[in-house]
Amino acid sequence: MEKRNVSFCQPDISELEIQEVAEVLRSGWITTGPKTKQLEKKLAEFCHTEKVVCLGSATAAEELILRVLDIGEGDEVIVPAYTYTASASAVIHVGAAVKLIDSQTDSYEMDYEKVEAAITEHTKAILAVDLGGVPCDYERIYQIVEEKKHLFRPKGSIQKQLGRIAVLADCAHALGAKKDGKMAGQWADFTSFSFHAVKNFTTAEGGAVTWRPIPGVDNEELYRQYQLYSLHGQSKDALEKNRAGSWEYDIVAPLYKCNMTDVMAAIGLKQLERYPGMLERRKEIIQKYDKGCGMLGIESLTHYGDNFQSSGHLYMTRVPWADHEERCAIITKMGERGIACNVHYKPLPMLSAYKKLGWKIEDFPNAYERFQNEITLPLHTKLMDADVEYVLAHFIEIIKESKSHSKSIV
CA dist 235 to 116, 203, 231, 250, Å? Predict the structure, then answer.
């Protein structure tokens, strides 16, 4: 088989996005403006939510959720140990304490019994991570927060209206996923999305936040609060200030700078038009991978079921007989054949920043067990069928060699 070069990820940018960006650049208005507002409206329609706020990143979206909820010093937020740093770093940014939770024995999701046991009167939020675009068990999480309402000590107006621990969703991977008839964005009290270049849907950088209606909380006022948080606490955005005679503004608090630009939003508007087809292509690739990997006796992330549909962001596999060293050898051999693979993720307690905070991977055996033999195959909509077949052929060959080698050692 002739050698091919297969990238791990590649943004799917068409002439439609390029033309839309060129139009914005020619318009004379390139920062937050009409295109950003249009994208917010279109995303809200797509997610079946009332409001969306587009921001500079998913990390900013998560941090602003915490700030809107008045979560800070003295508070605790429950976060899975098996995730990317952004899930936890936003909690640290606001001064709250991260409580890491081990994975389940047979899933990347948090162990919900351990979640329940970790809740104290200081717990203000549980952050679920829809890894690879696969929805978590939100029904179980809501059950937990209802059962623990007697411990909840509200701080701030929105917490008082909720009357319980807030359920947050890190849907960085999950735009377009569905579960029990609901879209990502409808599952949790507040949801953050990522539009980074490696995501299914991209604006180069960027992200967004959406939320479910909360009785007693005015959606327009909440939207305005996000605008203040994302633009220095300025009472008027740049577009409004630019209107004739409308120069005067106030700074209501010394806040942050994480707004989305119209250049970014222009990419997103055309991405969203194409997104249903992009999701369908990801599904086709996953089905091909599932068929090939099913013959190998290895585990792969389940993207589709009777009551849910993933966004198909990552094709994560686990080679059960491999340890960390063997997993790295497999990835190296794939690389030698021109195929870029990856690992998702190093559990947070393995990283220097979290070790310094006192976390030890020995306390998270399930997360480490899932990490040590995980291999993520290329999955993006620029892959051709020939690329997928090439990846599968070599992965199957290398995995069979690995299995044979493992048996010979035993």
Answer: 41, 26, 9, 5
pTM confidence score: 0.95
How much is the mean pLDDT over the chain?
95
- Which DSSP string corresponds to 150-195? GG----SHHHHHH-SPEEEEE-TT-TT-EETTEETTSSSSEEEEE-
Structure confidence at residue 410 as a pLDDT band (50, 70, 90): very low
* CB distance 191 to 211 below 8 Å: yes
- Whether residue 326 contacts residue 61, with contact meaning beta carbons closer than 8 Å, is answered with no
Structure tokens at 280: 């369908």
The owner of tokens 């849910």 is 308
Distance (Å, whole) CA 370 – CA 317: 10
What torsion do the CA atoms of 111, 112, 114, 117 make, to the nearest 10 degrees? 180
Locate 354 and state its tokens: 């979290």
Per-residue tokens: 78: 């429950």
Please name which of 163, 71, 172 lies closest in space to residue 122, comparing C-alpha atoms.
Answer: 71
User: CB neighbours (10 Å) of residue 342?
Assistant: 16
Per-residue model confidence as pLDDT tens digits over 64-106: 999 999 999 999 999 999 999 999 999 999 999 999 999 999 9
DSSP 96: P
- Residue type, position 160, single letter: K
Categorize the per-residue pLDDT at 405 as very low, low, confident or very high, splitting at 50, 70 and 90. Answer: low
Give the DSSP letter of residue 349.
G
H-helix segments, 28-111: 34-47, 58-68, 85-93
Give the model's pLDDT for residue 407.
Answer: 58
For the stretch 350-370, pLDDT in tens is 999 999 999 999 999 999 999
Q: Which two tokens stand for residue 405?
A: 């080698």
Segment holding 233, helix H or strand E: none
**What does DSSP assign to residue 97?**
E
Instruction: Give the integer Cα–Cα distance in Å for 191 and 47.
Output: 11
Kindly list the distances between the CA atom of residue 54 and the CA atoms of 19, 44, 171, 304, 404, in Å, as whole numbers in the listed order.
21, 10, 14, 28, 50
Listed residue (296, 294, 293) closest to 402, CA to CA: 296
Cα(335)–Cα(328) distance, rounded to whole angstroms? 10
Distance (Å, rounded) from C-alpha 404 to C-alpha 410?
A: 10
